Amino acid sequence: MADSDRSREHLVLYAGSFDPITLGHLDVLQRARRMFDRIILAIGENPEKAALFSPQERLDMARTLIDEIVAAEPNEAPVEVKHYIGLTVDVARRSGACAILRGIRNITDLAAECQHAITNRQVAGIETVFVVTGESFAFTSSSLIKQVAALGGSLDRLSTLVPPLVIEKLKEKRDDPTNPLGRLAQDHLDE
Question: What are phi and psi for residue 133, nearest 5 degrees?
Answer without folding.
Answer: -70, 165
